[in-house]
Design brief:
This protein is an alpha+beta fold and about 190 residues long. It has one domain: tt1808, chain A, CATH 3.90.1570. Helix content is about 20%, strand content about 35%. A 6-stranded mixed β-sheet has the order 3-5-7-8-9-10. Helix 3 links the parallel strand 7 and strand 8. The radius of gyration is 16 Å and the shape is globular. The chain starts with a helix and ends in a 17-residue tail after the last strand.
Length: about 190
């Protein structure tokens, strides 16, 4: 896709209103629409959010993220920002302010969460990217972003199964995962 095409899509996306019951995000010049999430998904987001101490961090749901040099405006399930750097207002939160993003895998978002968004968040130099996966009953924490564009990636990854705590050093939080649910009867995948 050319820069003109990406700019046109980004301008179109700015005023785009998805149909009721759908959420939309811009990922590398493509508008991706998703149905409302499953109850398992929403409970994992809630349980994760409640473990982040509000005296130091703001865990924000459905916050659009602005990535420099990317035709992308992802909407992570959770964005974690230090309280003292949060702007007063705005639809787009600059990626430079973000400490961690969280995506909870849905039945149809496996590739997007593990590959596309992993590269996008690494390109935005987001320090930590946590994928919580109710298909495989695991959390995958990506850290140490490097690179630009589609070649960006995280140099480190750590996997922990549900039921065991996961240390989120970047937040100084031990995430308890024992209450995280799973999707029944969903075919396993091969990510990360």
């Amino acid at each position: 896709m050319t820069a003109v095409d990406e700019r046109g899509v980004a301008e179109f996306f700015e005023g785009f209103e998805p149909p009721d019951g759908l959420k939309a995000e811009l990922l590398r010049g493509e508008i991706v629409m998703m149905a409302s999430p499953d109850l398992v998904h929403n409970l994992i987001v809630l349980l994760t959010e409640r473990q982040i101490p509000l005296d130091r961090w703001y865990p924000l749901q459905t916050q659009d993220v602005d990535l420099v040099d990317e035709a992308s405006e992802p909407v992570p399930d959770l964005v974690v920002v230090a309280r003292d750097v949060l702007p007063d207002s705005g639809r787009l939160l600059p990626c430079q302010l973000i400490t961690m993003v969280v995506e909870v895998v849905s039945k149809d978002s496996v590739h997007r969460d593990y590959a596309v968004k992993r590269s996008i968040y690494a390109a935005g130099n987001v320090p930590a990217y946590l994928v919580i996966d109710p298909i495989m009953a695991q959390c995958v924490l990506f850290t140490k972003p490097e690179g630009k564009g589609e070649d960006a990636n995280y140099r480190a990854q750590y996997i922990e199964k549900f039921g065991r705590p996961l240390m989120l050093d970047v937040l100084g939080v031990e995430l308890k995962t024992s209450e995280f649910g799973t999707f029944p009867d969903v075919k396993p995948h091969r990510y990360p």
